[in-house]
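Title: Comparing notes on inverse folding

I've been comparing how different people in this forum approach sequence design from structure. To keep things fair, I'm posting one structure and asking everyone to reply with a full sequence. Here's the target:
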């Protein structure tokens, strides 16, 4: 945590909401410092893992345009325990609490309750601790769990072969013809790869492979 307060990054799919939340947090206390904000999932992952200024706390919207907030949370937590994560949502947070907890977050707050609950949550989460220990893990506990899972989630030789072809832009039909297998078999392998990477479509698979040098 910064000596002079808590550094915070804000991620929201809605540019207006992004500006509003960041402005409110900056003005809520002299110890709260929003160091960056973005609407982009890929930018969030890059800045949290490779940026020159990593926040003490990431405030992360569930609904993003280029990935889910849950998948972003899991990717960050896989690689670091140094950032506390608070999920925010315009919907009922109880619907997403379990998913966010498994992805390594330390809290989830409904946007309508942000001004009432966020100030109390920030110093707790900045230390890597959960606001509700019965639901959420510490950042270190979650990092250990997720990193261990991903290290054991190795690709089979066939999955790696197909993944190389996907990254090169080959279609399911082209891959099937090249390997002499059915398109359904190709789809099954791609689906398994997607689960291991925590992605939901081909574009995200390709993006993660290139961004994190998976192959």
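Reply #1:
Here's my take.
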């Amino acid at each position: 945590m910064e000596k002079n307060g808590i550094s915070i990054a804000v991620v929201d799919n809605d540019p207006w909401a992004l500006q509003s939340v960041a402005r409110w947090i900056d003005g809520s206390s002299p110890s709260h410092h929003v160091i960056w904000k973005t609407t982009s999932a890929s930018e969030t992952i890059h800045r949290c893992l490779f940026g020159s200024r990593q926040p003490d706390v990431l405030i992360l919207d569930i609904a993003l345009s280029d990935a889910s907030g849950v998948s972003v949370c899991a990717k960050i937590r896989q690689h670091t325990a140094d950032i506390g994560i608070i999920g925010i949502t315009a919907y009922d947070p109880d619907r997403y609490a379990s998913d966010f907890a498994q992805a390594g977050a330390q809290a989830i707050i409904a946007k309508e309750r942000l001004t009432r609950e966020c100030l109390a949550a920030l110093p707790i989460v900045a230390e890597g601790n959960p606001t509700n220990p019965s639901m959420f893990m510490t950042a270190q506990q979650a990092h250990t769990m997720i990193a261990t899972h991903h290290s054991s989630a190795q690709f089979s030789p066939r999955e790696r072969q197909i993944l190389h072809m996907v990254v090169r832009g080959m279609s399911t039909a082209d891959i099937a013809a090249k390997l002499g297998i059915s398109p359904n078999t190709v789809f099954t392998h791609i689906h398994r790869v997607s689960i291991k990477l925590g992605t939901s479509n081909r574009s995200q698979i390709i993006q993660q492979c290139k961004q994190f040098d998976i192959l």
